[in-house]
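[stage:ingest] chain + small molecule (magnesium ion)
[stage:ingest] validated
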Amino acid sequence: MNWSAAARRIKAIILDIDGVMTDGMVGFGPEGNIKFFNARDGHAIKMALREGLLVGALSGRDDPVNRRRADELGLSFCYTGEKDKLAAFQRLLAEHHLQPDECLYVGDDVVDIPIFRRVGVAVAVSDAVPEAQAHAHVVTAAGGGRGAVREIIVRVLTEQGRWAKALARYVETGE
Ligand SMILES: [Mg+2]
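[stage:predict] done
[stage:export] tokens:
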């Protein structure tokens, strides 16, 4: 894969949840599950949305906290409880009028491999299982729930020439 050319084509960033937006741990509390999401990943997602990219989640696990996090971030889509992730990905393409090569997908486990094999850019987090890493185009330096999402968003926006613009609202003095 030519990273530069592939990254410039990306219109949608699709994130697995467990092990990508989180570190993969799921706490079982008396009133439901507890997961820890990374606030810096969350802010990068908001910046990418502001720059016009679609950013959303695709998870096999049916869990109300997934949708809660998606709502909080204003994700473009949230497919959750999708036992057949590939079928959900194909539905996503149709519903959002996307071509596979316009999608970047971030995953961490073997269930993500069928999607890795179809998207323009397949990204495994640094602590993804080796089988998933072997099918990815890119492996992040950061782990799931530890900045991997932010890292890949910065890389894509930089390659698309949008990162400086995304940052401008924070660094401009207004003077
Ligand atoms: Mg996962």
